[in-house]
Amino acid sequence: MKYEQLEHRYIRISAHEKEQCVGRACTIHNRSDHHMRSFKQNWRFDIGMMERICSHGVGHPDPDEYRILNGELDGTHGCDGCCIRFADEKEYDGPND
Question: Residue 42 in contact with residue 60, Cβ under 8 Å?
């Protein structure tokens, strides 16, 4: 195990080796270009899951969290809507209310 720094935090956590997640999304070693990348990462020790903290202080499951990607967790959380990715003009063909 090695200590890795969380994104946008000064916190380091004990993490698996980089070789264990080659070729797949990983919240530590292979982050995708998702819309919550600017949110601070937070490791939830109580449930063993990575989340992203929005500017309102709400924790949202990290889109690269393997337990979400493989269906082990359903991503249920107290949500304020910041984790919803809104369509841009190219993807949305109607009025954006």
Answer: no
